[in-house]
């Protein structure tokens, strides 16, 4: 019995939509001029200092510094991710996500965990552990508290934004 060699093809509009949407990607320069934007950039820069100061030492010998590294790197990566979302206005393309609640939860959890990490960092810094790494650990402790205060500020602004959304 002979077989049919007919091939049916379908065309998708995915590539057309992809090229159209990528060419209209928005960029919000004004976000960096707001207080939450400035705080976010400060969190990224000083958070980078926290984990690089610790990463340059033998932190893996002391579990407390491992915890500080986890918190610092985890929230540094997420903060960079959220900065990209805010700068490219991606949140406007995904309206199903409650972005004010996401921001409040993110900043609130970052504040609490960074506060714990900063306290652990500060209480673990002693000359008895390793005097060679003392200055790096002491500096990371200072910057961890500064980053904690930045996340506290962003938590406050997220709370104000969330409250204004729920009152409408």
TrEMBL record:
**Pfam families listed in its UniProt record:** MARVEL (PF01284)
Q: Which PROSITE patterns match?
A: MARVEL
- GO cellular component entries: membrane
List where in the cell it is found: Membrane
Cite the GO molecular-function annotations of the record: structural constituent of myelin sheath
Q: Which domain of life is it from?
A: Eukaryota
Give the protein's recorded name.
CKLF8 protein
Report the source organism: Neopipo cinnamomea
């Amino acid at each position: 019995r002979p077989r049919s060699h007919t091939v049916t093809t379908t065309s998708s509009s995915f590539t057309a939509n992809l090229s159209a949407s990528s060419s209209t990607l928005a960029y919000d320069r004004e976000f960096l001029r707001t207080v939450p934007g400035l705080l976010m950039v400060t969190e990224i820069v000083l958070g980078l200092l926290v984990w690089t100061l610790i990463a340059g030492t033998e932190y893996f010998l002391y579990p407390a510094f491992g915890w500080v590294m986890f918190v610092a790197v985890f929230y540094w990566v997420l903060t960079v991710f959220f900065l990209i979302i805010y700068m490219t206005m991606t949140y406007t393309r995904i309206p199903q996500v409650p972005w004010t609640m996401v921001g409040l939860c993110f900043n609130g959890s970052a504040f609490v965990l960074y506060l714990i990490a900063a306290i652990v960092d500060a209480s673990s810094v002693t000359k008895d552990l390793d005097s060679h790494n003392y200055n790096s650990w002491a500096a990371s402790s200072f910057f961890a508290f500064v980053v904690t205060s930045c996340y506290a500020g962003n938590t406050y602004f997220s709370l104000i934004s969330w409250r204004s959304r729920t009152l409408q």
